[in-house]
Request: fold
Amino acid sequence: MEQINSENEIQKKKSIVFNPITSSVFIIATICILSFYYFIISNSLTASGFLINENKEKLNSLQKQNQDLELEVMNMESYYDVSERLESLKMVKVDQVDYIEVIEEVVARK
Reply:
C-alpha cells in the first residue's frame, strides 16, 4: 500500500497544477505571442499596400509615357513631316509616270 501511495505522490508532483496563477501566466503568454504575430502580419500587409501603390504609380507613368511616344510616332509619320524629309533629301516630284504593260501569255499544255 505504501508503494501505491508513493507512486501517487510522484504522479501528483509530476503533473502540472492549474491554479489561477499558472492559468494567468499561460493566458498572458498566449496573448503576447498572438499580439506579436498580429504585429508582424499587419506590418507585412502595410508594406505590401505601399508596394502596390508604388507599382500603380509606375504603371500610370509608363502608360502616359507610352501615349506620348505613340503621339510622337504619329507626328513623325504625318504627311507634312514626310514631305519635309523628302525635300531635305533633294528628291523631286515626278511629272509623268509611265506604266509598263504586262502581256499575259498563254502557256501551252501538252
The mean pLDDT is 82. The two ends are 125 Å apart (CA to CA). Residues 20-88 form one domain.
